[in-house]
Amino acid sequence: MSRAVENLRAVRLVASGRVQGVGFRWQARQQARALGIDGWVKNRGDGRVEMVAQGERTAVGRFIAWARSGPGYGYVEHLEVTDEPVRGMTGFDVR
């Protein structure tokens, strides 16, 4: 495995709390783009927000830290963080 790939991390995040209808997805995209994170974010039917984020390990750690609190108008009660395989993703989409 090359050093560049070793420095990448991919995670699946599922946030619960007041996370829908508060701009969470749009702010997640803004944060991801600022940090150079690839992936996506979407609202789930159960009221939670799900994200897949991939990028440089430090940047992914910063994204996780942001996701623990979320946007100013909402709040995150719980954040599930699961490591995922690194795969070829480009950009960060709101689904």
Automatic annotation (TrEMBL):
InterPro entries: Acylphosphatase, Acylphosphatase-like_dom, Acylphosphatase-like_dom_sf, Acylphosphatase_CS. Residues 10-95 form the Acylphosphatase-like domain. It comes from the Bacteria. One of its GO terms (molecular function) is acylphosphatase activity. Keywords: Hydrolase. It catalyses: an acyl phosphate + H2O = a carboxylate + phosphate + H(+). The keyword Signal does not apply. It is an enzyme of class 3 (hydrolase). Its EC number is 3.6.1.7. The active site is at R25, N43. SUPFAM superfamilies: Acylphosphatase/BLUF domain-like. Belongs to the acylphosphatase family. This is acylphosphatase. It comes from Propionibacterium freudenreichii subsp. shermanii (strain ATCC 9614 / DSM 4902 / CIP 103027 / NCIMB 8099 / CIRM-BIA1).
